[in-house]
Write a structure and sequence with these properties.
By secondary structure, the chain is an alpha+beta fold. 23% of the residues lie in helices and 13% in strands. The strands form 5 sheets. A 4-stranded antiparallel β-sheet has the order 5-6-11-12, covered by helices on one side. A 3-stranded mixed β-sheet has the order 9-10-13, with no helix packed on it. The protein has a two-stranded antiparallel ribbon with strand order 1-4. It is globular, with a radius of gyration of 27 Å. The N and C termini lie far apart (103 Å).
Length: 334
């Protein structure tokens, strides 16, 4: 046999030895599949963690914006919202309905160059956050209708965050306004006891259908603040305490109590008109865990942000040692 023939035979044998059989290929594919199934949850968890960190960073930037705002405004925090065109004179507050829309705290910060649209976003939300109650047609969610047709609120186009009403007053500043018995007041940052343990702001739930209108249609009221208190008295309905309940014509808010974890629904269903307002705080992170372990980012009055569950903010109670924005002062019943 020629030497070249021997070399050809040797190369052919080596090629045969290097080739994979079908069984070997299937085994390799199976191993790759197992490894991928093990890595994907870790990759998803890493991505979710990155989104939560970005959301917390944006919330922390709002803490700096509020600090600058208060230093420029005699140490006062802004209102959570007011009706556009609000005027107070001779003990009368007008207008008494949001016929011209709302002025939201996010709109105030943006108008003073203290916040940008991007800083008000959380990547866990569709399009970064919730739209205003009144917005442009191309900014509406599917099924959403403006609360007041033809009006655009002074609010960020998309906002993922809400504030603690115990620090940021709503728009009832005069006794008798919409029947208010206890009017709201602006809060100085220096009046807040234990700022490192008092929540300033947090995330909304990602579902915009927070309330229903008179016809039963869901409406987006992302201008509303949240808080951790319930009124004690004959008009305390469903253990709720909100600006409309402040408007009752009898002293139903002579006292109030702090919420406990037993007051909060593990998995709120929306529309949630009968839910305590803390159930509108987002459970937007760690969604693969048990319902009670889903978390939100919380900004505290000293400027630091923490990711934790809504239940953990109630033990110990971190929504304010008193309802600072509501007159008169501290009358909390434990």
């Amino acid at each position: 046999m020629k030497q070249s023939d021997n070399q050809d035979a040797t190369r052919l044998a080596c090629n045969r030895r290097r080739a994979f059989t079908l069984v070997e290929l299937l085994v390799v594919i199976a191993i790759i599949g197992v490894l991928a199934s093990m890595l994907l949850p870790a990759l998803c968890s890493t991505k979710a963690r990155a989104l939560q960190i970005q959301c917390a960073a944006n919330l922390s930037s709002l803490g700096r914006a509020f600090a600058i705002y208060s230093s420029d405004n005699e140490s006062f925090y802004p209102a959570a919202f007011v009706y556009r065109g609000m005027s107070i004179g001779d003990g009368i507050e007008t207008p008494n309905q949001p016929t011209h829309g709302y002025v939201h705290w996010s709109g105030v910060l943006m108008s003073q160059g203290l916040a940008t649209e991007q800083s008000l976003h959380c990547p866990a939300f569709n399009r970064g956050g919730l739209p205003p109650a009144n917005t442009e047609a191309d900014n509406l969610e599917d099924g959403q209708h403006n609360e007041t047709p033809g009006v655009v609120d002074e609010q960020a186009k998309r906002c993922a965050f809400t504030v603690n009403q115990a620090l940021f007053p709503a728009n009832h500043f005069v006794i008798g306004f919409q029947g208010a018995y206890r009017p709201c007041r602006y809060v100085r940052d220096s009046s807040v006891a234990d700022p490192a343990d008092t929540i300033m702001a947090t995330e909304w739930t990602t579902d915009w259908r927070l309330l229903v209108d008179a016809s039963g249609n869901p409406v987006c009221r992302s201008y509303l603040p949240v808080h951790g208190f319930s009124g004690l008295g004959p008009a305390a309905v469903n253990n709720r305490c909100d600006t409309r309940r402040f408007g009752c014509k009898r002293p139903c808010w002579a006292a109030m109590r702090r919420f406990t974890p037993a007051d909060i629904v593990a998995e709120p269903s929306l529309p949630g008109a009968s839910l305590p307002w803390l159930d509108w705080v987002g459970r937007n992170h760690q969604r693969k865990g048990l319902v009670g372990s889903r978390s939100s980012n919380f900004l505290f009055a000293d400027g630091h942000a923490v990711n934790t569950t809504i239940f953990d903010t109630l033990q110990p109670f971190q929504w304010g040692s008193e309802f600072y924005s509501l007159q008169p002062g501290n009358d909390i019943s434990d």
